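ATP synthase subunit b
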Amino acid sequence: MHIDASFFALVGLILFFVLLAFVGVHTTIGKALDKRSESIAKDLDDAKRLREEAAALLADYQKRAREAEAEAQTIVEKARREAAALADEAKVQMEDYVTRRTKMAEDKITQAEHQALQEVKALSADVAIAAAEKILSAKLKGAAGAEMVASSIADVKNRLN
Protein backbone atom coordinates (compact mmCIF):
# COMPACT_ATOMS: atom_id res chain seq x y z
CA MET A 1 0.00 0.00 0.00
CA HIS A 2 1.30 3.11 -1.00
CA ILE A 3 0.39 6.14 1.18
CA ASP A 4 0.47 9.39 -0.47
CA ALA A 5 1.40 12.84 0.99
CA SER A 6 -2.09 14.08 0.44
CA PHE A 7 -3.33 11.36 2.78
CA PHE A 8 -1.06 12.70 5.51
CA ALA A 9 -2.25 16.23 4.79
CA LEU A 10 -5.84 15.05 5.16
CA VAL A 11 -5.07 13.27 8.42
CA GLY A 12 -3.24 16.36 9.69
CA LEU A 13 -6.16 18.56 8.78
CA ILE A 14 -8.61 16.26 10.57
CA LEU A 15 -6.36 16.18 13.66
CA PHE A 16 -6.15 19.96 13.53
CA PHE A 17 -9.94 20.27 13.48
CA VAL A 18 -10.25 17.78 16.34
CA LEU A 19 -7.68 19.76 18.35
CA LEU A 20 -9.58 23.00 17.67
CA ALA A 21 -12.85 21.36 18.77
CA PHE A 22 -11.11 19.95 21.87
CA VAL A 23 -9.71 23.36 22.85
CA GLY A 24 -13.12 25.00 22.30
CA VAL A 25 -12.18 27.44 19.58
CA HIS A 26 -15.58 27.01 17.98
CA THR A 27 -17.33 28.32 21.16
CA THR A 28 -14.95 31.29 21.31
CA ILE A 29 -15.57 32.05 17.66
CA GLY A 30 -19.33 31.66 18.23
CA LYS A 31 -19.22 33.99 21.21
CA ALA A 32 -17.20 36.54 19.24
CA LEU A 33 -19.68 36.32 16.37
CA ASP A 34 -22.59 36.66 18.79
CA LYS A 35 -20.99 39.75 20.37
CA ARG A 36 -20.39 41.22 16.94
CA SER A 37 -23.99 40.45 15.99
CA GLU A 38 -25.27 42.10 19.17
CA SER A 39 -23.03 45.12 18.55
CA ILE A 40 -24.33 45.46 14.99
CA ALA A 41 -27.94 45.09 16.21
CA LYS A 42 -27.31 47.73 18.87
CA ASP A 43 -25.77 50.08 16.27
CA LEU A 44 -28.76 49.50 13.99
CA ASP A 45 -31.18 50.26 16.84
CA ASP A 46 -29.22 53.42 17.71
CA ALA A 47 -29.21 54.48 14.07
CA LYS A 48 -32.96 53.85 13.83
CA ARG A 49 -33.58 55.85 17.03
CA LEU A 50 -31.37 58.71 15.80
CA ARG A 51 -33.16 58.68 12.44
CA GLU A 52 -36.54 58.89 14.19
CA GLU A 53 -35.28 61.75 16.40
CA ALA A 54 -33.92 63.56 13.36
CA ALA A 55 -37.25 63.09 11.56
CA ALA A 56 -39.09 64.43 14.62
CA LEU A 57 -36.73 67.44 14.83
CA LEU A 58 -37.17 68.09 11.13
CA ALA A 59 -40.95 67.98 11.48
CA ASP A 60 -40.74 70.28 14.50
CA TYR A 61 -38.53 72.78 12.67
CA GLN A 62 -40.80 72.68 9.63
CA LYS A 63 -43.80 73.31 11.87
CA ARG A 64 -41.99 76.21 13.58
CA ALA A 65 -41.02 77.63 10.19
CA ARG A 66 -44.65 77.50 9.03
CA GLU A 67 -45.79 79.11 12.28
CA ALA A 68 -43.12 81.81 11.99
CA GLU A 69 -44.14 82.49 8.39
CA ALA A 70 -47.80 82.70 9.39
CA GLU A 71 -46.90 85.03 12.26
CA ALA A 72 -44.79 87.16 9.93
CA GLN A 73 -47.71 87.41 7.50
CA THR A 74 -49.99 88.38 10.38
CA ILE A 75 -47.53 91.06 11.50
CA VAL A 76 -47.18 92.40 7.95
CA GLU A 77 -50.95 92.48 7.48
CA LYS A 78 -51.41 94.22 10.83
CA ALA A 79 -48.74 96.76 9.90
CA ARG A 80 -50.51 97.38 6.57
CA ARG A 81 -53.83 97.92 8.33
CA GLU A 82 -52.22 100.26 10.87
CA ALA A 83 -50.46 102.19 8.11
CA ALA A 84 -53.74 102.55 6.21
CA ALA A 85 -55.49 103.68 9.40
CA LEU A 86 -52.74 106.21 10.11
CA ALA A 87 -52.93 107.48 6.53
CA ASP A 88 -56.71 107.86 6.81
CA GLU A 89 -56.34 109.61 10.15
CA ALA A 90 -53.67 111.93 8.76
CA LYS A 91 -55.92 112.72 5.79
CA VAL A 92 -58.84 113.53 8.09
CA GLN A 93 -56.60 115.69 10.28
CA MET A 94 -55.22 117.49 7.23
CA GLU A 95 -58.73 118.14 5.89
CA ASP A 96 -59.78 119.41 9.33
CA TYR A 97 -56.70 121.64 9.49
CA VAL A 98 -57.39 123.05 6.00
CA THR A 99 -61.04 123.62 6.92
CA ARG A 100 -60.11 125.45 10.13
CA ARG A 101 -57.47 127.56 8.37
CA THR A 102 -59.94 128.42 5.59
CA LYS A 103 -62.56 129.40 8.17
CA MET A 104 -60.02 131.55 10.02
CA ALA A 105 -58.99 133.24 6.77
CA GLU A 106 -62.64 133.87 5.84
CA ASP A 107 -63.30 135.29 9.32
CA LYS A 108 -60.27 137.60 9.01
CA ILE A 109 -61.42 138.72 5.55
CA THR A 110 -64.93 139.41 6.89
CA GLN A 111 -63.48 141.30 9.83
CA ALA A 112 -61.17 143.30 7.55
CA GLU A 113 -64.12 144.14 5.24
CA HIS A 114 -66.19 145.27 8.22
CA GLN A 115 -63.33 147.36 9.57
CA ALA A 116 -62.68 148.89 6.13
CA LEU A 117 -66.39 149.69 5.79
CA GLN A 118 -66.37 151.39 9.22
CA GLU A 119 -63.29 153.37 8.25
CA VAL A 120 -64.92 154.43 4.94
CA LYS A 121 -68.08 155.46 6.82
CA ALA A 122 -66.04 157.42 9.34
CA LEU A 123 -63.99 159.08 6.60
CA SER A 124 -67.17 159.83 4.61
CA ALA A 125 -68.74 161.34 7.68
CA ASP A 126 -65.68 163.49 8.32
CA VAL A 127 -65.61 164.62 4.67
CA ALA A 128 -69.36 165.31 4.71
CA ILE A 129 -69.05 167.26 7.92
CA ALA A 130 -66.16 169.29 6.59
CA ALA A 131 -68.04 170.00 3.35
CA ALA A 132 -71.21 170.92 5.22
CA GLU A 133 -69.22 173.14 7.54
CA LYS A 134 -67.65 174.97 4.60
CA ILE A 135 -70.96 175.38 2.79
CA LEU A 136 -72.84 176.54 5.85
CA SER A 137 -70.11 178.85 7.04
CA ALA A 138 -69.95 180.41 3.57
CA LYS A 139 -73.74 180.94 3.51
CA LEU A 140 -74.17 181.97 7.10
CA LYS A 141 -71.96 184.58 8.54
CA GLY A 142 -71.90 185.71 12.09
CA ALA A 143 -72.80 184.27 15.48
CA ALA A 144 -76.18 182.84 14.49
CA GLY A 145 -74.61 181.09 11.56
CA ALA A 146 -71.78 179.71 13.69
CA GLU A 147 -74.25 178.39 16.24
CA MET A 148 -76.38 176.79 13.56
CA VAL A 149 -73.32 175.25 11.94
CA ALA A 150 -72.16 173.81 15.27
CA SER A 151 -75.58 172.28 16.04
CA SER A 152 -75.85 170.86 12.50
CA ILE A 153 -72.37 169.35 12.76
CA ALA A 154 -73.26 167.75 16.09
CA ASP A 155 -76.53 166.48 14.62
CA VAL A 156 -74.77 164.95 11.58
CA LYS A 157 -72.12 163.32 13.83
CA ASN A 158 -74.81 161.75 16.00
CA ARG A 159 -76.68 160.37 12.98
CA LEU A 160 -73.58 158.88 11.31
CA ASN A 161 -72.22 157.22 14.41
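thats it. Residues 25-139 form the longest helix (115 residues). Helices lie at 5-23, 25-139, 143-160. bye
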